[in-house]
Amino acid sequence: MARPTIRDISRLTGLSTYTISQALRGAEGVSDDSRARVLAAANDIGYIPNRAAQDLRRTNRDSVGLITASTSNSYYLDLIGGIQSMVQSLAWTVIIADVAVDGHYDAEQENRTVRRLIEARVAGVISTLTLRKENADLLSKWDIPVVFVDSSPPAAAPDLPSVTTDNYQASMLVGGHLAGHGYKNWLFLAYPAIWSTRVEREHGLRDAATAAGATLTVVESANDASSASKALAAHLDSTGQVPDVLIAGNNPMLLGALEHLRIRDLRIPGDIAVVGYDEFAWSNLIQPPLTLLNERSGEIGQEAARTLSEIILGQEESEIRGEGSKPDYRPDHQKQVAAELIVRQSCGCGASGSHLPPL
Predict the structure, then answer these.
(1) Looking at the predicted structure, is the pLDDT value of residue 118 above 70?
(2) Is residue 212 one of the residues assigned to a domain?
(3) Could you tell me if 97 and 236 lie in one domain?
(4) Do residue 131 and residue 197 come from a single domain?
(5) Residue 29 sits in which domain range?
(6) Is the full-model pTM beyond 0.70?
(7) Are residues 81 and 202 in the same domain?
(8) DSSP result, 48-111
(9) 88 & 11 share domain
(10) What does the pLDDT average to over 248-267?
(11) pLDDT per residue over 169-197, tens digit each?
């Protein structure tokens, strides 16, 4: 006679194997009613958990990987918090790996990271960087679902799940506000295009500048504050002109810009207005308080984790039906979170704390 298994309990209770496993382990995230049904069914059929096997699986069956691209960017702190707040209810562990330490992307580090996550048999991956095609293919080969956040899926796999900001419209929102100030000379201090958000942000700013009769100059820097400060210094030295407004592409760019503007003793917004992408906790404590685009990264993190968990649980149900474990990606797994412009004083406005909704 065959020994009873978790699949037998699943057939009796109608619950997923994941829920049954969590109930048998005493983990959180399982209702009292479901736990009671699982324990009763296990007792009825004489199921005895294999604790040794559970210990071997514990680090992979209930863990997900988070691939970040520079944890020095404070944007990721709220993103990680949003992910953690979602997965802790499932008793999952998040494994964080940075493939752009201090803002410098390393392709070999990406390769190593993807392979290590596969070796660890993580249930799924959230990536803040558009992965190389070979790495996206490798995850697919192992039936490990991936959700992209703050980045686009690879061009060769545009239907993969993603939770992003509409960066073009967000930049049009920024540009529309700058146009209202009458600024004609805009400087965009930008990070490299390996981060896919750069392209749409620049596109939106260019269109907004054209509509306003303004000129947009783009200065590219490596994705860290020190490089941003040096790139801005070189540009200002070469032109001998101070633009009307500086638009910092992200928080490392903003930090580098503020450092250099202070060195030059340029007043904000008297000598140059400043606007940045990505809200952070103490932005209203800086003098002057900073006008920033708020992408609501915590909400993006929550939505990405919710989407990934839905796909993973769907895989388990598919396995129960004997249909394999290939991830089932749907069109509604591609989502966007609206951004808002938080208007304070660094852009030249007199009042602080007002919010402009997205276009």
Answers:
(1) yes
(2) yes
(3) no
(4) no
(5) 6-49
(6) yes
(7) no
(8) ---HHHHHHHHHHHTEEEEEES-TTSTHHHHHHHHHHHHHGGGT-EEEEEESSGGG---HHHHH
(9) no
(10) 96
(11) 999 999 999 999 999 999 999 999 888 89
